[in-house]
Write a structure and sequence with these properties.
The chain is 34% helix and 14% strand. It is an alpha/beta fold. Helix 4 crosses helix 5.
Length: 211
């Protein structure tokens, strides 16, 4: 069973915590392929798909032929909406597109477990007693991060709920982001090198994703 180092509220090591096997010891036949598929669909779902261009039928302007067909010695010009003219429409216009793909629930959950298992195997899951901030304090948050993590890398702070004081304390720190335990996803885990969880968050992760 995987273990994680446990820290107190100021970042001092006080022991170890056993990570639940139902979440942090996941296996599958081809984990890389599954993670690639789920992350690819997740990123596709973040796309707005609002990019669009106008065809010659949509741009404003007269459809009158700019010059006579013969006798000018030049090219046979059509209307100013022609794709070959400045300000004309696009020959192959781009319409808005929906990039959404439904991610199967079982795949999504297994991908999250695989990502957490990878971080746990590398010893990059850190457990902290709690994060209690009466008011936002970036100074305290930075001091805690400096004590917890000595290497360079992105850090994800996982809490049980959406504590505004905690979120605002860490929001000004570069390469640090916060998230709720019941809203974790594989991409969020893989994007961050270190995962810092409160004890309450760890329990909620087991309750929500350990089934």
């Amino acid at each position: 069973m995987a273990n994680a180092i446990k820290y107190n509220t100021i970042g001092e090591k006080i022991g170890e915590v056993q990570l639940p096997a139902s979440v942090f010891e996941a296996e599958c036949k081809n984990p890389k392929a599954l993670l690639y598929e789920v992350v690819n669909m997740y990123l596709g779902n973040q796309r707005q798909g609002t990019r669009a261009t106008k065809s010659r039928g949509l741009v404003s302007g007269s459809t009158k032929k700019l010059g006579k067909q013969k006798g000018s010695g030049g090219a046979r010009m059509g209307s100013r909406r022609s794709p070959i003219r400045v300000g004309g429409g696009h020959a192959f216009r781009i319409d808005p597109k929906c990039w959404y793909k439904n991610i199967p629930a079982q795949k999504k959950r297994l991908a999250l477990k695989l990502a957490l298992t990878d971080r746990a195997t590398e010893g990059r899951i850190l457990v902290i007693e709690n994060l209690n901030y009466d008011k936002p304090s970036t100074k305290s948050a930075k001091a805690l991060i400096d004590n917890l993590v000595k290497e360079k890398g992105r850090i994800l702070i996982v809490t049980k709920g959406n504590d505004k004081a905690v979120v605002r304390s860490f929001s000004n720190l570069e390469f640090v982001e916060t998230g709720r335990a019941n809203g974790l996803h594989a991409y969020g885990i893989l994007k961050n090198s270190f995962i810092v969880m409160t004890e309450e968050a760890l329990q909620q992760v087991e309750e929500v994703f350990g089934k």
